[in-house]
Amino acid sequence: MFYTYVLKSLSYETLYIGSSEKPVERLKNEHNKGIIKYTKGRLPWIIIHEESFLTRSEAMKREKFLKSGQGRKFLKEVLGN
Question: What is the C-alpha to C-alpha distance for residues 27 and 47, in angstroms, rounded to an integer?
Fold first, then answer.
């Protein structure tokens, strides 16, 4: 399985959208350890939304959508932000 996930910074209230085979491990081992450039300066992060897909291609397509204007509007409605 492949996942598209949304992280929220607990210190800055910003969102990060990504995709991975193992989002929980990526959060723990990369995002919250400061390895990912964008998330490095906004620690700590939590997963607030996750969607699963059968292929990497589908997950990446969804990630791209969620980063678009319509996708951010969708997230705002779903997450209540």
Answer: 8
CATH number given to 2-79: 3.40.1440
The one-digit pLDDT tens for each residue of the chain (81 residues) are: 999 999 999 999 899 999 999 999 999 999 999 999 999 999 999 999 999 999 999 999 999 999 999 999 999 999 986
Determine how many CB atoms are found less than 10 A away from the CB of residue 71. 16
Which tokens go with 39? 């998330």
φ/ψ of 35, rounded to 5, equals -85, -30
Q: What is the pTM of this model?
A: 0.93
Residue 47: C-alpha distances to residues 50, 68 (Å)? 7, 19
